[in-house]
Amino acid sequence: MRLPVHLQRDIARQHFYDPTLAHRAISRTTGTHHDTIRKFRQQVDASGLSWQELSPLDDDAWRAALGTQDRSIAQLKTHPDCELIHAEMRRPDATLERLWREWRETTPDGVGYSQFAMLYRAWTKNQHVVMRRTHRPGEKLFVDFAGRTVEIRDQNGGPSTFAQIFVAVLGYSNYTYIEATASQTTKDWLKCHANCFEALGGVPEWVVSDNLKAAVWRRERDRTVINPAYRDCLSHYDTAPLPTGARKPKHKAKAEVGVQIAQRWALFSLRDRIFFSLAELNAELRIKAEEMNRHPFKRLPGCRLDRFLETEKASLKPLPGTAFELSDWRYSVRVQDDYHVEHQRRFYSVPHTLARESVDLRFTATVIEIFHRGRRVALHPLIEIQGNARTIPEHRPVIHSRVLDAEPRALLAWAMNVGGNVELMIRHQLENRSDITNGVKAARRMRDLARDYGEARFEEVCAYAMPLNITSLRSITSILKEDADKRFSITQAPKVKIIGELRGPSYFGESA
Q: Is position 508 within any domain?
């Protein structure tokens, strides 16, 4: 029966109030044909239910109790399994009509194609509902780069560069941070995070990011490989990364919407401005971000800044006591046979047991850390001069330490036998250099030079070089090869040859 439920209730109410009431009387008050009212009153009587039992029922239960469901022909026929149809539609070249034909071959009493398509589309529409996410204060910070860039012109007429726009949005208050940076590299990505935490005055529990390389190296079936530099940065601030699913923008809807609002609010208003530096652009972006955070909500009281200051800021974790130092990484670096690793033509020691193993290098502006299977095995200050090495004594095997301890004494004893100037030179190599290993190597090579050129000659060169503070192996070798100390003596004045054409004093005396 297609009679609306509200009319059914009205008719039933009058029927129970006065069972003797004529059908035509009820028809006049409800606007329903008297024959329809007759049939409906018969169904009510047949149900055996009272008004007290019927009145609390909702519409579906009411129809079921009285048997007044709208039973069309399509409803009486067999319906398809839409979930199975949906799985088949994912296969290449599948069409609804083809699937309907195959289904009808096994289900002759099934619905027709038009009803089949309507049922499937209604089912798929219900699958696309969106979950509304709620966030606790201080729980999540959503970060992303905007799709748009801003041109930075060169004042000297060089090529322009294009600044990337970093956007961060707090989940609870929607408080937004905007910063322009030179690129989307790991270094700039980490710098933006550090600046953002400093601007917020605290750190959230989680940082939700996209899958850009600066944050996520790769995704595997059972794990996500986070960029180690990004992991170190967030660990320093006592927070953790929470990358979204691949190609799942709804997982970070806050960031997507925040980027969209930032582009409309800040970038669009600056579209006609010309910028010559990142600092100039960031100064304008800070002003626009403050305006956006102070702008009142449309449906909620207050603004982003109010919600941030009143509730969310107090829920953030405190900043660490030290600032984060930017770092870079090198991975799977092979340790040489002499238990040193090479980095930028400089050599750093590791425990000798790791010779020929693979290690990872983390280096900042001042130090280099060496890791083996996630455990730090060495820490060195960066070496300034290419070709130099730094060896921690504890990294050597015992036999090497014994040899190195004995060799300096032997070299010094040899120098004392040759002469005082050679002793000064060798003692300088062994005692006045910060790196004893390279000092021993230089002293050993100087001993070889003395054997090649003669010890007496080497004593002469040392006597010439030490007062001039010439102590490097390269300079001593050059003096020996070029005989630089014999070219002239600073104590002997050069003689001037008198040419015959020169007029002597007598010439001028006679003319006088």
A: no
Query: 87 lies in which domain range?
Result: 74-127
Two structure tokens written together for 403:
């040899």
Helices 436-453 and 473-482: angle between axes, nearest 10 degrees: 10
On whether both 108 and 252 belong to a single domain, the answer is no
Asked if 171 and 139 count as a contact pair (C-beta separation under 8 A), the reply is: yes
Look at the chain and report how many structural domains it folds into. Answer: 5
Longest dimension (CA), the chain: 171
Q: pLDDT digit string (tens) for 32-51?
A: 888 888 888 888 888 888 88
Is residue 165 domain-shared with residue 311, that is, in the same domain?
Answer: yes
For residues 447 and 367, membership in a common domain is answered with no
Cβ atoms of 11 and 5 within 8 Å: the answer is no
- Note whether 189 and 278 are same-domain residues: yes
d(CA 111, CA 70): 16
Same domain, 107 and 235: no
CA gap 382, 366 in Å, rounded: 6
For residues 239 and 342, membership in a common domain is answered with no
Which pLDDT band, with edges at 50, 70 and 90, does 485 fall under? Answer: confident
The answer to the question of residue 320 being in a domain is no
Strands 216-219 and 206-208: what pairing?
unpaired
How many CB atoms neighbour CB 52 within 10 A?
8
Tens digit of each residue's pLDDT (9 = 90 or more) over 421-444: 999 999 998 887 766 778 888 998
The arrangement of strands across the sheet holding 206-208 comes to 176-181, 161-170, 140-152, 206-208, 240-241
pLDDT digits (tens, 9 = 90+) for 243-259: 876 555 555 555 577 67
Per-residue pLDDT tens digits for 216-240: 887 776 677 888 888 889 999 999 8
